[in-house]
Automatic annotation (TrEMBL):
InterPro entries: Endo/exonu/phosph_ase_sf (IPR036691), IP5 (IPR046985), IPPc (IPR000300), SAC_dom (IPR002013)
GO cellular component terms listed in the entry, alphabetical order: cytoplasm; membrane
Pfam name, any one: Exo_endo_phos2
Top-tier EC class: hydrolase
Coiled coil location: none
Gene Ontology MF terms in the entry: phosphatidylinositol-3,5-bisphosphate 5-phosphatase activity; phosphatidylinositol-4,5-bisphosphate 5-phosphatase activity
Residue ranges with Basic and acidic residues bias: 866-878
Annotated SAC domain residues: 147-476
Region called Disordered, residue ranges: 866-890
Record's protein name: phosphoinositide 5-phosphatase
Gene3D superfamilies cross-referenced by the UniProt entry: Endonuclease/exonuclease/phosphatase
Amino acid sequence: MRLLIRKQPRSIAIISNGYVVIFEQRKKQNITSDDKGNQPTVVECLRESAFSPDNFVEIKHSLYNGLLGLINVGGHIYIGVIGNIKKVGSPRWRLLENGELEDIESIYQVLSAEFFCLDNDALDPIYSDFREQTGEKPGYEHPCAEFEKLFSDGSFYFSRDFDISNVLQERGLINRLDYTLDNQVEEVLWNYNLISEMIQVRSRITTNELPSFDGGTFLTFLIRGFCKTVTAVDGDDCSTITLISKVSAESKENSFDMQGVDKHGNVSNFIETETILCTERYVLGYTQTSGNIPLKWEVTEGQLLHSKKIRLREDPALIQLAFDKHFDKLSSKYGVVSILNLLKPKSESQETLGSAYEVCAANKDIKITNIAYSSDALINASHKLLYLLKQELYEFGAFVYDIQKGIHAGKQTGCLRISAFDSIRKPLLVEKSVSQEIIELTTAELDGFHLPSSLYGQHEKLWTENSFWLENLYVKNHKNLNKYKKVYWRLFASSSRINLHDPFHAIISKTLKKLKKDYAYQKTITTFAGTFNVNGKNYTDGIEEWLFPRNNGLESPADIYVLGFEEVVELTPGHMLSTNPFAKQFWEKKVLQELNSKAGKKYNHAWGGQLGGVLLLLFVSEDEFSKIKHIEGDVKKTGLGGMSANKGAVAVRFTYSATKFCFLVSHLAAGLENVDQRHHDYKTIVKNIRFAKDLRIKDHDVVIWMGDFNYRISLPNEEVRNSVISKNYSKLFDRDQLNQQMIAGESFPYYNEMEISFPPTYKFDPGTKTYDTSEKNRIPAWTDRILSKGEALKQLSYGCAGNLIFSDHRPVYATFKSVVTVVDEKLKANLSASISEKVKEKLLNKTEDEKYAILNDADFVYDDEKLNPQEPLRPEVKKGRKLPPPSSETKKWWVGNSKQVKVVIDVDPTEYMINPGKTANPFVPTDEKPFFVKRDHAS
């Protein structure tokens, strides 16, 4: 990154990756300021080839490695940049053919930061380049000196390869900046207030410019805490452990204060710590959290010197609302949360606090364990603590990805919430022990996983270093609490934020919105959904009867195939992972081969996820694949109370252009009488399946849920079999348990199921078309179902492939069509480039002031007819969304996305009047009567 300053007119230019961003404060009457009176900064974004460095002086006394952001200090605008950095971590890497390691992800530590004043040259002597020219020496401290010291203290880190604000499980294995910006955790980004306006600038940059902008260092997101990677080598085996501890800024200026929860559910000293273990074949991630006790309490001085006592400020009943908000945030991010509260032995006040903690936790139905262990006990008797946490460690599991097989072998479904009064060390001792235990438990279940003998020693050293730096950070802040609170207040205050106004790209964005109908259109896409309990068998013959059934309502093979499988492997209950990768690979390969050889068009394998014996595969035709974005998956165990993967669900969600899809496959509890358990499984899945930004199943436009739901028919066996022979399916459906649950509004409320016109799909003698003749003589039932919901969805068919008889189930299928809004990105990019050229033509040979006056003219229009639609565009009304607000005198919902309306009718009201013969409703078709008629002056 290069930084240049121009004195007149005062500007700062930043050049990175061939892209130039020029910051210049311009006070124009037609640019509105914010509530705090901050004047916007005009930002001009240019290619380097169009940038003239005349009158600019480059600052060369330091290397710059990223834009820290912009901040208002004392009424002046300052631009912060990152100076020296140091590479400290590589969470993921790959082994090259020559035996060398290549980093996939890198983490850098910030060693220095500088701030440059945009609107005043009085501080220029502080910058060495100007000092060398003028010989002046500054006699005062820089107004941003506190910020420079803060960001240079070695506790800030960033990465350009991945979303460092999210844990590995949430951010995924492929870095995409758009996805990062959509899913960042703002609470752990300490410079988000400074950089947020640059994100808005990026959103208006044209598609052609984005690669250059994104390849630069204009967006740098900083976390605070500790990051480091250590390596353990044993012969040819190499393993790395990375520790990433993130101090949350959710409490802003109170981030390191000695206080409990605020009314928004935020706490101080909240730290998220992630352990990432990476080998040539596997990558493992595990997350833990710690922070102040989320109650409202205060610290008072004790009778003894330097002693402290804790006093509850409010009764637990009054604290409950804030307490619930805190844990709602945690559960939305981590899943199930279990509390471990570390009390000080023989502390009466801490026991009182622990009792109130238990009351609030019980009201929220959260498991809490209060333990009065000293630090020495946590070190020397950690096995006792781990025994108490055994259930949580097995239930929560760990995130594991098999690089060689390309599958997710495990997922972490919950986390520990650890707290201790006035101590960072004790929670970290617990986390270190848990981290090692998880590595041992998880790797013991992975095939071919060899841990170098030196790994645990490296793990110990890494956690010791992590504790040292976090404790120092904690102590440093507490020794100067009031000083740091003032610095943090200035850092996070809304008044510190700078408004950036990019007039050139704003006018392009504004014009594109007016022309949306030129690049956005509606189309119909088709989906094939199928579910099949394969009874642990890998079938080698053809499955075209299932994938391409007759009378499926489709004119051609579907655009999207989503297939759910159950019992792809036999499972041993109680294991944390229990995933056989070979079954997933077999069915991926088989289905893709069948589709591409018999469908008449090509398909891509877009996504696959497996939990134990439950497998979900997503295939998308090549013509539609480019429109699929933001693919995410999630899983939830439901076997043995959530501890086993023999039952559960796998889900995938994505956006097709602007429409949100969610597909699920689940295997629910078996047994004729287990209706309540199946209902509990359903609720568990709905509660725990969540995606980035806390998206739930219900938040999607289209939902298709399939699987072996295991619901039975509540009729005698003989009666059911006779009804099947006579095809009296309506009689059976009336007593179908799932149908009864849906009618009662219990399981799957608001879901739709097409009429069932095929015989029960369970249970058959494998290899025959004969229902169960074993000793159990099970009653035939429709255990395999496909449900759906969404106004944009219409089901076309529902059936089963009765001739695929290798399993004791029959595969079921359903086809759907969906009307979606599609944005032609290529056409939009071309249109954007065309508008850009036309704007440049308007600005040609104009002075700087004339350019800004033109671009900021609210009435600025184009001569090109294509850029001036004669009729106002009606905004697209998305199904399932709320209606627009009612019209007013100044805003009409049908004009320009609720923009202000100004209508001029060139009619002389003294000569003409509205035709009384026309209907008052403008939306009702009428004859060709004129809208205005001449007045009858005689009357």
